[in-house]
Amino acid sequence: MSEKKAVPYQEESLVAEWMDRLKGLNVSTKKMFGCYCLYCDGQAVGWIHDSVLSLREVGLTFLPEEIKRPAPQDKIQELVIPFDYIDAEWLPKAVQDTADLRKKQLPGAAHR
């Protein structure tokens, strides 16, 4: 009986594609909880799982209406960005702005 060759985890190629579109930013990922945490400038800004980027909701106003925003009472405050938007012109700005706004929200950020 022949051994089965390990097939690369499909999600890794999808993560590589998302990261390729963000290559002008200071981004990295860390595998955890069965998906990849996305960091920009050291800030956790979202998750890459399956073919989706879940970006933390920070109030960005320039995203397309099709990107569903969570309701204020929702436990999970993330924007679900489908793979269809991987080439969207606004995507790198959304990731960078999320990192910048999260830095400002840190305790003591006003005193830095």
SSE topology sketch:
Elements: H1 10-21, E1 27-32, E2 35-40, E3 43-49, E4 52-56, E5 78-82, H2 91-105
Antiparallel strand pairs: 1-2, 2-3, 3-4, 4-5
What's the average pLDDT? 86
Q: Give the CA-based shape.
A: globular
Helix percent band: 10-25%
N/C terminus separation: 64 Å
* Largest β-sheet summary: 5 strands, antiparallel
| Proportion of residues in extended strands | 25-35%
How are the strands of the largest sheet arranged? 1-2-3-4-5
Quickly name the level 1 CATH class: Alpha Beta
Q: Would you tell me the structural class of the helices and strands?
A: alpha+beta
Q: Which value, in Å, is the CA radius of gyration?
A: 16 Å
- Could you say how many structural domains there are in total? 1
By DSSP (H or I, 4+ residues per run), the number of helices equals 2
Q: H/E element string?
A: HEEEEEH
CATH topology: Yope Regulator, Chain: A
Number of strands: 5
Low-confidence stretches: 4-9
CATH architecture assignment: 2-Layer Sandwich
